[in-house]
């Protein structure tokens, strides 16, 4: 079975666990933040007319899977990391 690079990475899962439990941010996650995705310039509006700024935002090729209320799993298709975020408090 042969896979193209992007198909391969969608099967790659490097499990970093739950972000809430991290003592330190894993290096792979920092690399993901730095290297994955694409930067786009977006106009952000702050409410008042004419009050807007141009900001660079990065969008990541991340899929989100709902594991329960306020509990989501994210999987980056570019570097293959998997992490979960529990925002239920
Ligand atoms: Zn990534």
Tell me the number of structural domains.
1
Mean pLDDT: 89
Beta percentage is 35-45%
* Strands side by side in the biggest sheet: 1-6-5-4
Gyration radius, in Å = 16 Å
Distance separating the two termini = 44 Å
* Helical fraction: 10-25%
Give the helices and strands as they follow along the chain: HEHEEEEE
Tally of strands = 6
Largest sheet: 4 strands, mixed
How do you describe this structure in short?
By secondary structure, the protein is of the alpha+beta class. The protein is 18% helix and 45% strand. The model has no long low-confidence stretch (mean pLDDT 89).
Secondary-structure blueprint:
Layout: H1 5-11, E1 14-18, H2 27-35, E2 38-45, E3 52-59, E4 62-68, E5 71-76, E6 81-86
Parallel strand pairs: 1-6
Antiparallel strand pairs: 2-3, 4-5, 5-6
The site of zinc ion has 6 residues, from loops.
